[in-house]
Write the structure tokens for this entry.
Amino acid sequence: MRRIAVDAMGTDLAPHAEVEGAILAAREGLAHVILVGPEEALQRELGRRGHATVKIVLGVLAGVDRPALAAVFPTSKGRAAVLLDVGANVDSKPRHLEQFAVMGEIYYRVIFGAARPRVGLLSIGAEDHKGNDLTREAFGILKRSPVNFVGNVEGRDLYNGRVEVIVCDGFIGNVALKISEGLVEAITSLLKDSISRDLTSKVGYVLARKAFQHFKKRVDYSEYGGAPLLGVRGVSIICHGGSNANAIKNAIRVAAEFAEGHVNEKIEIELRRSNVEARRELNASV
């Protein structure tokens, strides 16, 4: 594919129009586009487009149709749970959910050290037939996939530790993520308000301060660093807009563990094996 250099500061809307046009051209596979202009301004404009931009710049792994954002959640069992996709894709197809499951399981194995993490499909009921067309079709595909698929799970299972990896389309996942963030903020605010109401509450807080600090640490997003964008050819950790120094430190830690654990290589191997098995089943049925 040819490389085309584009003056990113040539129009009245620069660099917005140039960056937007370059992304459209790259998305359609017209050329490898090189944007020429002030690096800081271009990085800022590209940054507004987040992970869509990452996919175009880095490309995707073999066997991956859509990258997925994976978010880490605390559970009542003490171990973390990973939900994906939480916003990289608004609409997904059943085969995309299978890819999310493979990528999520491998990521969990490498980062959290679980030998065989359980994978669940987010739906409106645990029964096999529950859900919409997407989840019902994805259910059958996941049942035949190489991952440790345990069936449908509900929203509450995200926090109770029933499974380690939960897959869903990006629209639902992003809603779940934003509701969870809002809930943590509301609980923290309500606790502060209750503690400051009277002397008895303040004394109680002093006695239970360690417990409160432990709770805060368990629900603090900065402890997990950020959400990895799984499926791109490289390592990309998407950090929260309000990230502090601790969040950035942990994002760097996760990126290093991601690379050292050869997550991308393992994803390609598993997806290749999954595709071979799928073709074998198709040929057998014919």
User: Anything to note?
Assistant: The chain is about 50% helix and 15% strand. The chain has a mean pLDDT of 83.
